[in-house]
């Protein structure tokens, strides 16, 4: 632990500090004020956005078990789309709102002004209305990273519909489950999704998914690549054609602060994905504030978050935060390594990006390609770099700092979650010196506490470790799980009563800096994507030849964690390479390519207690190649299975 306190600290340059929103001397006092009187603090911050009817109430929240209730600015009314578009029309109508950078660099980028954003969003809103979508209805969005994804989100917000984006890498089954769970009226998709020079047949996936959904679900299709797709008359609608024919303006509706804005499904420790619900007022205040403060965003800056809108990072930091602040936000359809490993840096140079926000897994894979790639491009516009999704290892941090930021750009390592709407723990650039690998200190209004996992006692010492909880609410916090408030309480407020439980472990060093050590539940983090081990297990056991399966994470150089699956076959089935490939393909179809196991080990038996509980601790250790630390195996029903698993541990990766 003392290593952490002693780790080198990187302070921002004087030049950066001179322009920073928060000065070094200001953080401590502002933070103290934010937690001492949250009502006063957030009443002021609430004015960052435009309200139709101003709020008089600010914070009404309770983490009390059995009565968890989270409301912010409850009597205020607003429209999120109007905040992201209309309110900028007087000053920024001709400013670029979105720079769209296509997958293929030979296709020209699009610069969409705020005036065009208003028109396109309005047209799409009118198409949705014509399909009978109104306030409170759910719309599932399954799109590539194209401008229509932004229009669709903002069109829903404009008419009060609730969007639920499903990442285009998810399978038809995963899509169908989300359409059904949210009882969506409309699905918005595209013909194909080009990525890295390859095309995913999105419409074909949508067709398969819709077979398992209510017949009344309409399918709005963006003809993006123009390739032929199957067409179901009466159900499928050519969205671009309808938009062209629709009225160019749509009035926005007055929504309550606590009306849901979106549902976003994420993995939990049980098999069924959780529909995280975010509402309108508090979420927007928090997304806008963190986008401005954490990235030290200033008027006129070009901001690029490389995430996909299918994840919360894309919601908060491609769309809602930047657009609420009147920014120019980059939306990138491609991947970091297409057509070559210089693509990110080429795009930074081309669009003169000022803040660049990506994931450690991308940095690690680009680091492996060598520093000559960033060196080829003019990166002098960059002022700040960001990281999100998993802890960033110091080696990657140093490479990012040296070869991309050229030692001049603060790096914000932002810790947060789908559930939190925006950053929880992050350096405030200019004010908080960074230590590579640490998310540093809490954002304004966030009260992290560290608990002993066994006794649930609050660890008061500055230098400590344990599980990470948050003591009180903030405006960006999720409000419930769609249709299942009981599960919401159970998942986040029951294990450590009175606190929001993040599911992460952490250390706090002598400087009070937080170092996130990873999930303490059965959730793994693969390339910054969250995956429930139970989800992969249930996909595997759904295969007719699989009797049983246990899935754990193991350290992976590029992905952070890889997926390690132990598989027990049905009696009479023989392991083979062909079957291994078949199971990999099976999981891809059941969930999506991101869930494909990296390693599959054939397990004649799994280590179980006498009561039949699988001892995952042991499986994790074997997957980690850490046989010395297996701990007590005496309670196992059959200790010999462990020897077999060790002897046959997969050695790739
Ligand atoms: C989990 C949340 C929120 C955006 C992307 C992921 C891990 C996220 C960091 C970070 C260490 C991090 C945590 C967290 N995580 N950012 N900077 N340092 N760990 O969202 O899919 O909801 O996953 O990602 O384990 O709980 P998500």
Structure description:
By secondary structure, this protein is an alpha/beta fold. Helix content is 31%, strand content 22%. The strands form 9 sheets. A 7-stranded mixed beta sheet has the order 5-4-17-16-18-19-20, with helices on both faces. The two termini are 29 Å apart. The structure holds 5'-O-[(S)-butoxy(hydroxy)phosphoryl]adenosine. 5'-O-[(S)-butoxy(hydroxy)phosphoryl]adenosine is lined by residues 266, 312-313, 388-391, 413-418, 439, 502-504, 516, 518-519, 525, 530. This is Acetyl-coenzyme A synthetase. Its EC number is 6.2.1.1. The modification N6-acetyllysine is found at residue 613. Residues 86-473 form the AMP-dependent synthetase/ligase domain.
Binned, the helix content reads 25-40%
Using only C-alpha atoms, the radius of gyration works out to: 24 Å
**Total number of helices:** 22
Pairing-aware structural class of the strands and helices?
A: alpha/beta
**Spans of 5+ residues with little confidence (pLDDT < 50)?**
none
Strand order of the largest sheet: 5-4-17-16-18-19-20
Provide the list of bound ligands, each named once. 5'-O-[(S)-butoxy(hydroxy)phosphoryl]adenosine
Strand content: 15-25%
DSSP strand count: 30
């Amino acid at each position: 632990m003392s290593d952490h306190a002693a780790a080198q600290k990187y302070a921002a340059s004087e030049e950066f500090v001179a322009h920073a929103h928060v000065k070094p001397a200001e953080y401590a006092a502002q933070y103290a004020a934010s937690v001492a009187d949250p009502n006063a603090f957030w009443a002021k911050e609430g004015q960052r956005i435009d309200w139709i009817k101003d709020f008089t109430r600010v914070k009404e929240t309770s983490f009390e078990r059995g009565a968890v209730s989270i409301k912010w600015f409850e009597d205020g009314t607003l429209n999120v789309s109007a905040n992201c578009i209309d309110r900028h029309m007087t000053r920024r109508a001709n400013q670029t709102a979105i720079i769209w950078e296509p997958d293929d660099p030979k296709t020209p980028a699009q610069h969409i002004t705020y005036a065009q954003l208003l028109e396109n969003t309005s047209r799409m809103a009118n198409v949705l209305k014509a399909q009978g979508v109104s306030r409170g209805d759910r719309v599932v969005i399954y799109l590539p990273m194209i401008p229509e994804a932004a229009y669709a989100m903002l069109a829903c917000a404009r008419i009060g519909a609730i969007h639920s984006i499903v990442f285009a890498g998810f399978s038809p089954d995963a899509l169908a489950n989300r359409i059904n769970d949210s009882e969506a009226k409309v699905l918005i998709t595209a013909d194909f999704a080009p990525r890295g020079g390859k095309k995913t047949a999105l419409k074909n996936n949508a067709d398969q998914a819709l077979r398992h959904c209510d017949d009344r679900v309409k399918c709005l299709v963006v003809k993006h690549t123009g390739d032929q797709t199957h067409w179901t008359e009466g159900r499928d609608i050519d969205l671009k054609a309808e938009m062209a024919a629709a009225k160019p303006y749509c009035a926005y509706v007055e929504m309550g602060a606590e009306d849901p804005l979106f549902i976003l499904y994420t993995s939990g420790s049980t098999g069924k994905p959780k529909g995280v619900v975010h509402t309108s007022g508090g979420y927007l205040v928090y997304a806008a504030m963190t986008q401005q403060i954490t990235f030290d965003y200033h008027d006129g800056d070009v901001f690029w978050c490389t995430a996909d809108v299918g994840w919360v990072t894309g919601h908060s930091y491609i769309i809602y935060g930047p657009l609420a602040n009147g920014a120019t936000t980059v939306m990138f359809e491609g991947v970091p390594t297409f057509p070559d490993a210089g693509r990110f840096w080429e795009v930074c140079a081309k669009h003169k990006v000022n803040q660049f926000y990506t994931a450690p897994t991308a940095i690690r894979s680009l680091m492996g390609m060598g520093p000559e790639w960033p060196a080829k491009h003019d990166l002098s516009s960059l002022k700040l770099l960001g990281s999100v999704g998993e802890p960033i290892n110091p080696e990657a941090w140093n490479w990012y700092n040296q070869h991309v930021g050229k030692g001049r750009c603060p790096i914000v390592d932002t810790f947060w979650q789908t559930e939190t709407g925006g950053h929880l723990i992050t350096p405030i650039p200019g004010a908080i010196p960074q230590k590579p690998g640490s998310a540093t200190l809490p954002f304004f209004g966030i009260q992290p506490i560290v608990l002993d996992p066994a006794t649930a006692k609050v660890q008061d010492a500055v230098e400590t470790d344990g599980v990470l909880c948050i003591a009180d609410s903030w405006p960006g916090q999720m409000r419930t799980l769609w249709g299942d408030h009981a599960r919401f309480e159970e998942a986040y407020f029951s294990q450590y009563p009175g606190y929001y439980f993040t599911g992460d472990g952490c250390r706090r060093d002598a400087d009070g800096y937080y170092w996130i050590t990873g999930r303490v539940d059965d959730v793994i983090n693969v390339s910054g994507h969250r995956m429930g081990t139970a989800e992969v297990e249930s996909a595997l056991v759904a295969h007719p030849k699989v009797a049983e399966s246990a899935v754990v994470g193991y350290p992976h150089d590029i992905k952070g964690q890889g997926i390690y699956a132990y598989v027990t076959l049905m009696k009479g089935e023989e392991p083979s390479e062909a079957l291994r490939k078949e199971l990999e393909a099976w999981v891809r179809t059941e969930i999506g390519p991101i869930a494909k196991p990296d390693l599959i080990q054939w397990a004649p038996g799994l280590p179980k207690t006498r009561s039949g509980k699988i001892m995952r601790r042991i499986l994790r250790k074997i997957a980690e190649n850490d046989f010395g630390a297996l701990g007590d195996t005496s309670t196992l029903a059959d200790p010999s299975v462990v020897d077999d698993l060790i002897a046959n541990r997969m050695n790739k990766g």
